[in-house]
């Protein structure tokens, strides 16, 4: 056979070599197709995530639209508008009302912290969280108050120096993944005077342990305020938390005191610094820059006035200013200039506000120039020329940012000048991406460390990981699709002249992109979504066959249900604002008024009588009020072929 | 027909175009070509890359250069994947004792020493899916069946 073991230089018979070639060739093709499927799944996750962020920004425009037209608001609209303004003004009650009123019962067997905090408390907390214990609300509040006290004294940008013997570690988005934070501390050591860290924003939302992650970071910060640096991310924003799960997590884990915790947290967020500068050459910020980013202005502005991305500053004109002052003080003030007793001075200028949005929301791209970030709806896309000009202007060398999930946990672009670091591994789904952190020191090249927290997925074969991701992604995509069912059917039927129920793949792909605007590879995804016949034509109704929105109210038309399902996140936020006493109920009039405003701004057509019917049906005890949490819960989706063991989906738990 | 090919190629390309500037890293070209259903050998792949690269290689491939070359490949139905039975016979050729399986060591030896050898990553990935941990061997018939269903 010629396969003797004696000689190393033994040449294998041609047959064997050929066989090996066939197998290798086939395997490489197979593996490439798996990798491509993985990329497509990631593309789905990402485009849906960004579309959600865009909705958030749209809501922001809706609010500013209402605030700007305050003067011309109708009586019914005034309710909502006033509530919006009030939200801007609310004062934080002092410590007395919160911490001291919340007692820790003797029966509590969770972690207890000793103030002033020391490194022992960090250990205590980590150990407790590993055992899945919950930190008592009393300590949460105490930590939040202490954190705010220290953060207030810090400038907008923390300046840090390094040396060959004193490296610093930079971590990106964690999004409530305590596992990843624990893994980083395990691999890279706990924070200390000799082990500095920068956490570059987005500590919360989406993951299951946002509050625990936040507590570990804040406690570590309190113990080592000069060595652990926290930058604000776009998710350190109470409005984002409402949409992306952190609010739910807090209210679920802290049923008694959750609301207080959230209230205090709102203000703590505003005191987080917006960036760090290392050795006067490296800028660390969460998102990116724009062509108009003005570092000097950003150093000077009062960052704590940036409450939320959803409340842009009201534009002030003299008439409005006078009206308001007359309203508040009951008498006319001397000039049109805002005074400290007036809400308007508690705002940033529109320009300042936009500067911060750019910093927290922008993404780098390969194309030169600076143009609006249409995926996310806020901030911009900035090109290599913008980076070069900016770094030159401020005598900087590099920008390190986060904000975008990268398959390898980090990414370098713009000719090495922009580095992205993302620390939440398997962010979208098991197997989706690695997490990373960076260690660097002055005059040394940065070193990148990658990891995956879910050890299980390291052992499972690639095809399994891809299957899991793909399943999750298609599932989420189908939920978006069903929410536009009526519009999609109309688009398909427009092209189906013969009423055969079939259209070409090209027509189908065009319709899908037209209606959903997700910029996805529809042709490649088509086999997962629809039935295609031997002629290559698409049976377009087949896309709806295994998913539907539960129609809990038989009399209400599908189109109404779809629309409400689609905007449920926005509605949740609006309801929360209207419900100023946090009772969970709003009146039918409020519901109607809010809906009218909303539908006119969003150009949504729903028969008013249908909506009234819906509202009345929701008024279960006929007292004129709606429990909106119950209301929103009625819109959920059923997947017909849900496997019994659904893959772990990070989005599912707290949405 | 050609228009549909163009759209398919564009979709496959765009998914790897991270910076949204109509270029992809040259290291991803193999994956893109294979994801479109072709199975070129490593040698054939290098030839294709040479065709789509710039005169002065930049490490990036532009879509304008990739599209015509890839369209031709699809139209001419080049680099078609082998049918299942050919794959089975290939495994049988390696299984000289006709046992119906290959041991872990044998698989590693053949895949990393002959033909167009696997990288360590490729080898590890194949092992994780193919090798039964109890017997430390690969039943290639079952393996093929499993992989083909998946496609």
TrEMBL record, chain A:
SMART domains: EFh, IQ, PP2Ac
Entry's family note: Belongs to the PPP phosphatase family.
Domain EF-hand: 566-601, 606-641
CDD domains documented for this protein: EFh, IQCD, MPP_RdgC
Example GO molecular function: iron ion binding
Alphabetical list of InterPro entries matching this protein: Calcineurin-like_PHP, EF-hand-dom_pair, EF_Hand_1_Ca_BS, EF_hand_dom, IQ_motif_EF-hand-BS, Metallo-depent_PP-like, PPP_dom, PPP_phosphatase
A Gene Ontology BP annotation from the UniProt entry: detection of stimulus involved in sensory perception
Protein's UniProt name: Serine/threonine-protein phosphatase with EF-hands
Pfam families (alphabetical): EF-hand_7, IQ, Metallophos, PPP5
SUPFAM superfamilies (alphabetical): EF-hand, Metallo-dependent phosphatases
Gene: Ppef1
Catalytic reactions of this protein: O-phospho-L-seryl-[protein] + H2O = L-seryl-[protein] + phosphate; O-phospho-L-threonyl-[protein] + H2O = L-threonyl-[protein] + phosphate
Enzyme Commission number(s) of this protein: 3.1.3.16
Keywords, sorted A to Z: Calcium, Hydrolase, Magnesium, Manganese, Metal-binding, Protein phosphatase, Repeat
PANTHER family attached to this UniProt entry: SERINE/THREONINE-PROTEIN PHOSPHATASE 5-RELATED, SERINE_THREONINE-PROTEIN PHOSPHATASE WITH EF-HANDS 1
From TrEMBL, chain B:
A Gene Ontology molecular function term of the record: calcium ion binding
InterPro entries assigned to the protein according to its UniProt record, in alphabetical order: EF-hand-dom_pair, EF_hand_dom
Residue span, EF-hand domain: 4-39, 82-117
Entry keyword Ribonucleoprotein: no
Record has Cell division as a keyword: no
Pfam families linked: EF-hand_7
Keywords, comma-separated and alphabetical: Repeat
GO CC, alphabetical: sperm principal piece
SUPFAM superfamilies linked to this entry: EF-hand
Record protein name field: EF-hand calcium-binding domain-containing protein 2
């Amino acid at each position: 056979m010629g396969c003797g073991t004696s000689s190393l230089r033994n040449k294998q018979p041609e047959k064997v070599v050929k066989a090996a070639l066939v197998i290798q060739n086939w395997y490489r093709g197979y593996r490439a197709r798996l990798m491509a499927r993985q990329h497509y799944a990631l593309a789905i996750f990402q485009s849906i995530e960004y579309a959600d962020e865009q909705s958030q920004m749209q809501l922001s425009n809706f609010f500013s639209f209402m605030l700007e037209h305050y003067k011309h608001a109708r009586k019914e609209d005034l309710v909502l508008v006033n509530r919006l303004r009030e939200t801007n003004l609310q004062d934080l009650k002092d410590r007395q009302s919160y911490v001291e009123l919340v007692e820790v019962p003797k029966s509590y067997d969770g972690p207890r912290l000793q103030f002033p905090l020391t490194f022992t408390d960090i250990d205590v907390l980590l150990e407790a969280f590993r055992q899945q214990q919950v930190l008592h609300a009393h300590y949460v509040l105490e930590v939040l108050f202490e954190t705010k006290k220290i953060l207030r004294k810090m400038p907008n940008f923390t300046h840090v120096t390094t040396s060959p013997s004193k490296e610093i570690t930079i971590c990106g988005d964690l999004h409530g993944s305590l596992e990843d934070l624990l893994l980083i501390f395990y691999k890279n050591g706990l924070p200390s005077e000799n082990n500095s860290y920068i956490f570059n924003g987005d500590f919360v939302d989406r993951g299951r342990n946002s509050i625990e992650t936040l507590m570990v970071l804040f406690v570590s910060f309190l113990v080592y305020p000069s060595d652990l640096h926290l930058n604000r991310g776009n998710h350190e924003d109470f409005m984002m938390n409402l949409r992306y799960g952190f609010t739910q997590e807090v209210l679920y884990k802290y049923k008694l005191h959750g609301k207080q915790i959230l209230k205090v947290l709102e203000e703590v967020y505003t005191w987080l610094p917006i960036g760090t500068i290392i050795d006067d050459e490296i800028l660390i910020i969460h998102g990116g820059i724009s062509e108009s980013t003005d570092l000097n202005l950003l150093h000077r502005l009062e960052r704590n006035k940036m409450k939320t991305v959803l409340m842009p500053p009201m534009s002030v004109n003299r008439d409005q200013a006078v009206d308001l002052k007359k309203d508040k003080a009951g008498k006319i003030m001397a000039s049109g200039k805002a005074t400290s007793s007036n809400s308007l001075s508690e705002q940033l200028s529109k320009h300042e506000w936009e500067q911060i949005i750019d910093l927290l929301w922008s993404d780098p791209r390969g194309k030169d120039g600076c143009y609006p970030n249409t995926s996310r709806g806020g901030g911009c896309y900035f090109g290599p020329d913008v980076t070069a000009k900016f770094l030159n202007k401020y005598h900087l060398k590099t920008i390190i940012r986060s904000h975008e999930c990268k398959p390898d946990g980090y990414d370098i672009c713009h000719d090495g000048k922009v580095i992205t670091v993302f620390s939440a591994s398997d962010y979208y789904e098991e197997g989706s991406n690695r997490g990373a952190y960076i260690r660097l020191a002055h005059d040394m090249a940065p070193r990148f460390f990658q990891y995956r927290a879910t050890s299980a997925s390291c052992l499972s074969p690639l095809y399994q990981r891809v299957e899991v991701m793909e399943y999750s992604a298609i599932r989420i995509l189908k939920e978006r699709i069903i929410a536009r069912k009526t519009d999609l059917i109309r688009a398909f039927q427009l092209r189906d002249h013969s009423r055969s129920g079939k259209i070409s793949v090209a027509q189908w792909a065009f319709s899908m992109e037209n209606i959903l605007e997700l910029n996805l590879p529809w042709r490649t995804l088509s086999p997962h979504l629809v039935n295609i016949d031997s002629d290559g034509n698409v049976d377009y109704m087949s896309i709806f066959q295994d998913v539907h929105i539960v129609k809990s109210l038989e009399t209400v038309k599908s189109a109404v249900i779809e629309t409400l399902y689609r905007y449920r996140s926005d509605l949740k936020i609006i309801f929360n604002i209207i419900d100023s006493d946090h009772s969970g109920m709003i009146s039918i009039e409020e519901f109607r008024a809010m809906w009218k405003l909303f539908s006119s701004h969003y150009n949504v057509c729903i028969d008013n009588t249908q909506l009234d019917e819906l509202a009345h049906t929701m008024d279960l005890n006929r007292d004129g009020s709606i429990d909106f949490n119950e209301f929103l819960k009625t819109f959920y989706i059923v997947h017909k072929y849900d496997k019994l063991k659904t893959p772990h989906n990070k989005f599912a738990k707290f949405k | 027909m050609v228009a549909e090919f163009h759209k398919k190629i564009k979709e496959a390309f765009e998914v790897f175009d991270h910076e949204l500037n109509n270029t992809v890293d040259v290291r991803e070209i193999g994956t893109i070509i294979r994801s479109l259903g072709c199975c070129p050998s490593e040698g054939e792949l290098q030839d294709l890359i040479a065709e789509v690269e710039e005169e002065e290689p930049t490490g990036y491939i532009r879509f304008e250069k990739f599209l015509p070359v890839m369209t031709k490949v699809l139209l001419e139905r080049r680099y078609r994947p082998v049918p299942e039975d050919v794959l089975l016979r290939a495994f049988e050729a390696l299984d000289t004792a006709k046992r119906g399986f290959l041991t872990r060591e044998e698989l590693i030896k053949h895949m990393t020493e002959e033909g167009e050898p696997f990288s360590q990553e490729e080898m590890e990935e194949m092992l994780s899916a193919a090798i039964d941990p109890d017997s430390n061997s690969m039943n290639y018939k079952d393996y093929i069946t499993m992989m083909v269903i998946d496609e």
